[in-house]
Amino acid sequence: MLKKPLILSLFLLFWSTCTIAQNLHLIDSLSRKLHSAEGKIRFELLNDVAWEYRFSYPDSTVFYARQSYDLGQRLKLPSGLAEPLNFIGVALNYKGDRIGAFDNYEQALKVAIDQKDSIQIAYSNNNLGRLFFEQGLLARSYDYFIRALSIFENLNDSSGLAYTYQSLANLYKSQHDYPKAESNYLKANKIRLALGNTRDIMSGYSQTARFYQDNNQHDKALRYLHLADSAGQVIHDEINLAEVHISLSESFLNKGELEEAESICAQALKVIAEKRNMRMLPQAYISMGQIKLAQRDLTAAKKFFNLGLDIAKSTNDIASKMEAHYYLWKISEKEKNKFSELTNLNAYLLLKDSIKDLDLARQVERLQFEIEIERKERENELLKVDQVKTEAIIKQQRLSNIILGTIIVAVSLLGFVQWRSSKKRRESNEKLAQQNQFIQNQREEIVDQNEKLSRRNQQLSDLNHEKDTLMSIVAHDLKSPLNRIKGITDLMEMEGHLNKDQQDYVRMTKDATQAGLDLIKDLLDVHMLEESVILNLSTFDISAFLLEKTNNILPAAEAKSIHLHIAKIESVEVQMDADYLSRIVDNLLTNAVKFSKRQTAVAVSAGKSNGELWISISDQGQGFSEKDKLQLFQKFKKLSARPTDGESSNGLGLAIVKTLVDRLKGSIVLESEQGKGSTFIIRFPLHNN
């Protein structure tokens, strides 16, 4: 049986903590009280309303929490100002603004420390820990969770302890430390049970059950799902009860109790369909399809999988689409329906690779988040240095004013007494010397800070190297699915029996796949060229070399009725890296043909002058604008000109040319006007390197 993808598990975990419906009655009650409330009572009511809106309407949370914070500042409250800042951070995190959430959590922590507000210090640490955990920075998240746990234990705050135990449980689960994860889930459940909040109890039981399901402990999972079901019955939460019932049916299915699984899944499916809950509906149909498949009712199973697939397509639910195609593929195998089998297998493999791409994109996003946090922390350190400098200047100015005032008073009162004036001047000089020493100390501190910044810059450089390495890994990993697609299309052509439309579809698939492979090749070449600096020198005649290059491109030129010819060439013996020069000429000739219209000409010339070899490639194509010339050799920059016959272009060709020309210690010049063609002239020194 297909294991559900990690992305689906994480999605369900997130939903279990935030799908509790908004308590609209409570929100209405709090809103009515706000009309007449003033002072600290209004501050607390604004916080309560902001907290209730956090799941479904995070923008409302931000709106009310900012009002609360502004009011608290006007009232000059001695504590509690960090709470609305924490609420804003929670809302921004739900909206996906991780950096904004980090800024507000950091500000909340600073305000809480300034106000000596221990409870908000603990919540700020736990919020920062959850933020770093969601971004995959587990070591940093663990440190924040432990700080929060220690403070909540000292304060004997049960609600905060349950909150932190839940966070630690998720962290240990992600590290596959299942004993510790289980222990923390059970601790959180015990506290919530004692507190008596039925919604929190239901949420805790659901997460614990999912933990046991993921570890194939289905008896324990069933126990906690029944407990969650009982809690849901108390508060009449139909939609969350339906989700619990889906999980129950999956556990019964895994235990082979098919009748019980079918009965409870049917109940859940009825509620979800009536409520038109488009998020849960695909998985509900797929779960019923799995049960029907286990009962060997292929017709009913196929019906439910197709229903789930249709809903998943409308909501772009990649995980559910992939799962539906997987089971439809397996059913097609049993029915020996080759066309359906191949169609669903291809769809499943494409979606599986797209999920891998999402995981890689997530890794890049995490790396970018870490870099951004490092930048913000560095900026904070710079601000602290500036603050120290400003305070030093202010202190110096104040002291100078005091000295000046003292001198004026001394001069006005004791102007006639020489020894008094001399004494005052000596005192002033001594104080100025102390200030100079103080300034010197500040300078030394600034030098020390600059050294720290230099080390940070080196760390950022290392992170950039990690990013390049990740890009290389991404490119290599993408080659496998593209080669697989290309292989499948080759097999389809070999099998034959394709009508004209099918042949066109196969050809378009192959062209798109080849374009992707070409892009990956260029990406890998760019990375290799940026890393490799060793030249492989050889001696050859440039005229024979260019004749061979021109003949290689000739078929592509003739296909577009382009006259490709050698206008002028001298026989010159050169010593350089033939592979590098070959790539340069190939890219320039290919671009000349690709961006030229039919029935035009492309000319190649070469010679030597002033101790240099020059090669010129001219076309009658679209030319380059002044804006194009500013970003001509930059990677991934697609310029105003476009291929004239539907060819692909990834914006890497000229970047590779510039890199190789620089490696050969040459230069490249463009002579072009938009609409009047282009001429690239490259020059290389003829002496041996």
Automatic annotation (TrEMBL):
Stored Gene3D superfamilies: 1.10.287.130, Histidine kinase-like ATPase, C-terminal domain, Tetratricopeptide repeat domain
Class of this enzyme: transferase
The UniProt record lists the keyword Metal-binding: no
Coiled coil region boundaries: 425-466
CDD domains the UniProt entry points to: HisKA
Pfam families referenced in this protein's UniProt entry, alphabetically: HATPase_c, HisKA, TPR_12, TPR_8
Catalyzed reactions: ATP + protein L-histidine = ADP + protein N-phospho-L-histidine
SMART domains attached to this UniProt entry: HATPase_c, HisKA, TPR
Signal sequence, start to end: 1-21
InterPro entries, per the entry: HATPase_C_sf, HATPase_dom, His_kinase_dom, HisK_dim/P_dom, HisK_dim/P_sf, Sensor_HK_Regulatory, Sig_transdc_His_kin-like_C, TPR-like_helical_dom_sf
Keywords: Coiled coil, Kinase, Phosphoprotein, Signal, Transferase, Two-component regulatory system
Keyword Kinase: yes
EC identifiers of the protein: 2.7.13.3
Domain Histidine kinase: 473-688
Protein name, as recorded: histidine kinase
Source organism per UniProt: Chryseolinea serpens
